[in-house]
Amino acid sequence: MVRKIKVLVVDDSVSVQNVLYQILSSDPEIEVIGIASDPFDAVSKIAENLPDVITLDIEMPRMDGLTFLGKLMKQHPIPVVVISSLVGEGSEKGIRALKLGASEIIPKPKVSDMEQFEEYGIRITDAIKASALLKRIRPKPDKTFKNEEIKARIGEITDASKKLPIKHSEKIILLGASTGGTEVISKILQKIRNDLPGILIVQHMPGEFTRAFADRLNKECQLNVKEAEQGDVIQPGFVYIANGYNHLQLIKENGQFKCKLEMGPLVNRHRPSVDVLFHSASKFPAKNISAILLTGMGSDGAKGMLELHDAGAMTFAQDEKSSVIFGMPKEAIRLDAAKMIGNPDELVDWLNKAFLSDER
Question: I need a labelling partner for 52 at 20 to 30 A (CA). Which of 73, 75, 83, 184 fits?
Fold first, then answer.
């Protein structure tokens, strides 16, 4: 029998405690081993019975969740899923939680019917399972991305060059990622040229955080990064982050590639889904499409990548050694959907060389 994932719930709201207990206890792979009403109570319970994963609220008595998260990651790095109402309104708190070491961020439930409750349950249980896996294969800090190297590679690019002439991109780069993807995406975007074809990204992330994630990336790199909006014309040097409430699709109107947002049902237990994006791109000439699949649990994106691969598109899957969770890229490799397999540095090198004359 496979050992259940032991979860400690840390939240001062009794009603939220009950909802989380109901959701988590209904999954046969998860066991709630304790409920703590504040971080001090959590420390006592951790000492009694070490959990595999902690769910953590941010606003609590005696010590706020972000302070506790920072201390926990330094002293005893247990995977943490932040579940809080504060990360919904001021999503910068959610991005800060990720920087402090949280593996996932999820807003507290606002459900009006059974369908929404079931979707919320899927998001939480999947986050718990991904985080538990993260603990077992947590890699050493990636030392390949160094500030000096980043400056050396893009040193010739100035802030002024970030504002490129408005024109539509003839070629498109698609990228999908899940658990572990936020940081690797940041590092990749900091190191690639700012005149590459337009990049569409599906990062599994709730809608409350995708705009803040895009804003953070826009400040960190020389590219123009924004949350995708309905009808956005895809331009070279721009990155479009999928809105976390909707599927992101690639369409073409009046000879221009554009972003299309659509609510739609969950696909592979996700919305947005990488497969939805990849499948939408399969309608166009494969020579114009490149697809990338990075770290993440599950198989989202693998079938869509196979479809693009078979049509002749360039496809890249992250390798096992550099993946935080070798799930999505592993499935793509198993399907023989990846023409290239490598680490993020190799991906950066390929991107910087592959489009030298395409979008200039």
Answer: 184
